[in-house]
Design goal:
By secondary structure, the protein is an alpha+beta fold. It has helices at 15-23, 60-70, 83-93, 111-120, and strands at residues 5-11, 28-30, 37-41, 44-49, 73-80, 100-102, 108-110. A 7-stranded antiparallel β-sheet has the order 2-3-4-5-1-6-7.
């Protein structure tokens, strides 16, 4: 299975805060091969696109859903080496974020609700089990 990925969506005016939080990780560096950014943290590897360009991949109805919740969005695409890497990254980045998490598996959840689900279900793999199936 490919690396797990998520998209963090916040209101466009919160871009400096979210991007700043991620850029504060000192191990973040440009990846000349992909044009994205590469992060090595806690022994894990990540590929990040902080450009916001991932929004071009959204269907109009998905983008309407996001806009309804947060207004004009800014998005960060994060591809993680493993589910443990994804959980670690999201636990570091999401606290206090007023936005959404797109699991890339047909769910877009409020960031605070996503964090709560990870807390209640530490081994949750959102690629295989939608949040609606959790006990």
């Amino acid at each position: 299975m490919s690396w797990p990925s998520v998209i963090i969506l916040v209101p466009a005016e919160q871009r400096p805060t979210l991007e700043g939080r991620i850029r504060a990780f000192e191990q973040l560096a440009p990846d000349p091969a992909t044009g994205d950014e590469r992060l090595y943290r806690y022994g894990y590897s990540y590929s990040l696109d902080l450009s916001g360009g991932i929004l071009a991949d959204y269907e109009p109805d998905e983008l309407d859903q996001v806009t309804t919740f947060i207004g004009e969005p800014y998005a960060v695409y994060v591809s993680c080496q493993s589910m443990d890497a994804a959980r670690t990254f999201l636990r570091d980045v999401l606290p206090g974020v007023d936005g959404l998490v797109d699991t890339n598996h047909f769910e877009i959840l409020p960031a605070s609700g996503f964090l709560a689900l990870m807390e209640r279900h530490p081994e949750w793999d959102w690629r295989r089990q939608p949040s609606t199936d959790l006990p």
